[in-house]
Design goal:
alpha/beta, BMP_lipoprotein, lipoprotein, Rossmann fold, BMP family ABC transporter substrate-binding protein, about 20% strand, PnrA-like
Length: about 350
């Protein structure tokens, strides 16, 4: 199986998964002891699992796209509470042994486990979302979250009437700092003087920062009490609580990763989801799957940024276009990011 080492960007359509594939061959697993050689992509979910209406569900959309187009067997595995790196490694090894290829760990927490599993199965392609792991058979699928968050900040600054907006991060880690940094910069560049209230739900993922809607709801309610009338969340499953609180108070929420305005589970609150900062995890999962299907598996760091439509901002809510100056300001910001005149901070 031939590997590509120089490709660093894959053009994908944000949230649309509108890629066309024509390959129809089988995939290969480990050359030594895999149980099958005709199975396709397998994903191992991050904290919160399937049904978070956000990060994990976006990965599942990519898996479904690949399954439908290539007609092969797929697998998606839930995390377990309090699991160790050894548990994660065993899950990935089991998938590779069964012949799935590629095997993708959804979330930075899979880093150590994926590195170990990839070393054991050198003929299987592994992928990891939101982290960089070295390995000849590893594709690191990373995103310019700060760019999408900058656009969310522009939107928040245009939509606020109280000149107070909020940010709720799931866990206090560098990855979520990127969301906060971009958002704050977008707000400041668009409307100086707007106050940004920031709160992280927990210090570690084990404490439930990405999986506790009640924590998200309480944080958003606190910010709304302090006059925030737009609240942006980067909190996984916990973000559902943020959106619920915003809808109850009749203020704007900004979703994350998936277009949360379109999520069925959030339909009762959709009128208050102004927009979502999009991160095309599904497109990345599909792109890696297609590369293996085409016998040209990606490896190395694959960066999905605004220029290749790997991140973006949703316009699904009709109210988005009705906020004075919002769309024009976001479009201008996109141009600035793409031409380099706007440098978005990551911390």
């Amino acid at each position: 199986m031939r590997r590509i080492s120089k490709l660093t960007r894959v053009a994908v359509g944000v949230a649309s998964l509108g890629l066309v594939a024509t390959a129809c061959g089988g995939t290969s697993g480990d050359s030594g002891d895999s149980d099958s050689k005709d199975r396709g992509v397998a994903i191992a979910y991050d904290v919160g699992g399937k049904g978070d209406q956000s990060f994990n569900d976006a990965a599942y959309a990519g898996l479904t796209k690949a399954k439908d187009e290539f007609g092969y067997t797929t697998a998606d595995i839930e995390p377990t509470e309090g699991e160790t790196d050894a548990d994660k490694e065993q899950r990935l090894v089991s998938l590779a042994k069964q012949g799935y290829n590629p095997v993708i760990g959804v979330g930075f927490a899979y880093g150590p486990a994926l590195k170990a599993a990839a070393a054991k199965y050198p003929d299987t392609t592994f992928g990891i979302v939101d982290s960089v792991v070295e390995g000849k058979n590893v594709a690191s699928l990373v995103f310019a979250e700060e760019q999408a968050s900058y656009l969310a900040g522009v939107a928040a600054a245009k939509a606020t009437k109280s000149d107070v907006v909020g940010f709720v991060g799931g866990v206090d880690i560098p990855l979520i700092h990127k969301f906060e940094a971009g958002y704050k910069q977008g707000v400041e560049d668009t409307k100086p003087g707007v106050r940004v209230l920031s709160q992280y739900l927990t210090q570690t993922a084990e404490e439930g920062g990405f999986s506790s809607p009640d924590k998200g709801k309480a944080a958003a309610e606190g910010q709304i009490e302090k006059k925030a009338d737009v609240v942006y969340q980067a909190a996984g499953l916990s973000g559902q609580g943020v959106i619920e609180a915003a809808a109850k108070a009749k203020v704007w929420a900004i979703g994350v990763d998936s277009d949360q305005y379109k999520q069925a589970a959030l339909a009762p609150y959709k009128n208050y989801i102004l927009t979502s900062a999009l991160k095309d995890v599904g497109g990345a999962v599909y792109a890696l799957s297609k590369s293996v299907q085409d016998d040209k598996p990606l490896n190395g760091t694959q960066t999905f940024d605004l220029k290749v439509n790997g991140v973006g901002l949703s316009e699904a809510n009709p109210e988005y276009a009705k906020v004075p100056g919002l769309k024009a300001a976001v479009d201008k910001a996109k141009e600035g990011i793409n031409d380099g005149s706007i440098k978005v901070k990551t911390e």
